[in-house]
Amino acid sequence: MRHLIDTTDISVAEVDQILETALDIIADRKKYSEACKGKKLATLFYEPSTRTRLSFTSAMMELGGNVLGFSDAASSSVSKGETVADTVRVIGCFADIIAMRHSKEGAPLVASHYSDVPIINAGDGSHAHPTQTLTDLLTIRREKGRLNNLTIGFCGDLKFGRTVHSLIKALSRYTGINVILIAPEELRLPSYIRREVCDKNHVPTREVTTMEEVMGELDILYMTRVQKERFLDEEEFERLKDSFILNPERLRNAKKDMIILHPLPRVNEITRAVDNDPRAAYFRQVENGKFVRMALIYTLLKWAEERPVTPTPRLDTSLVNNDLRCSNRQCISNSEDVDHLFRETENGDLRCVYCEARVK
Prior knowledge:
By secondary structure, this protein is an alpha/beta fold. Helix content is 31%, strand content 14%. It is globular, with a radius of gyration of 20 Å.
């Protein structure tokens, strides 16, 4: 049995297999209309979601399966204090696979330690969003015809943007990837991702402060929202905010075949005037999310049948250090009774396994 907590939990070959299955579904949806007949997906969404939750629901329904779950933690037993571990052990009695979104970073990983059915991370705080990453990869594959030899510019909130972090991790495993980071000083990509992902995988990376200086180089522009609440200085936000709004004027020097992606929802970072530009792929990206989640559900259930649960421990006890505490308040280890897990990096840092925060 396999879970999907982070994109790197599956190999490049397995990612390509899921993408090929998604393409096959697109080509022949009737072939898969009863592929999951009799199976049940539980959607455990502890925080609000529209696209992701409905995408999972639609995906399972188109596979011929059924859906149960909740879309608000207040309507579940978590309001009575039930832990993630207990919730998944209970829900696993009713469902064959679980998709979980949680505000606490690392919650889906905790779930995977206790679940007898596959767990899919549908977003955990600012940490990871692997199914959005698979959506992005499928969109790039369909729009550009390849996943290598690409220059991609990430624009906006690169510090807290979980979709950005996940996609950089995923693309770093392909060849010929160049990453350009377009962000204000306050929202730059965390240095550990540059060091442990980009540098480690020899991915060329540049930091710039405006779209205009690099627009003509890009094969892909990945937009995210610059959030006012991330700035300590409101005047600084007011000075910078318009620099990260995409409009037709800023696209004048872009390649004719460049594509614009956005994980959505948007606020004002892409103007409505851009929507009719053929390079705007963000609504096509939404539909690809349904197809890739169909492929993922189908594949994980198939793997579960081929490789069922074994009685071997699911927790690497060598990582347990209950004498330390994670410094990240949003980490699940600071709100629930779980073993504290830390991994040593190549440069000697200790990082929390749940949320990747460095031990200070």
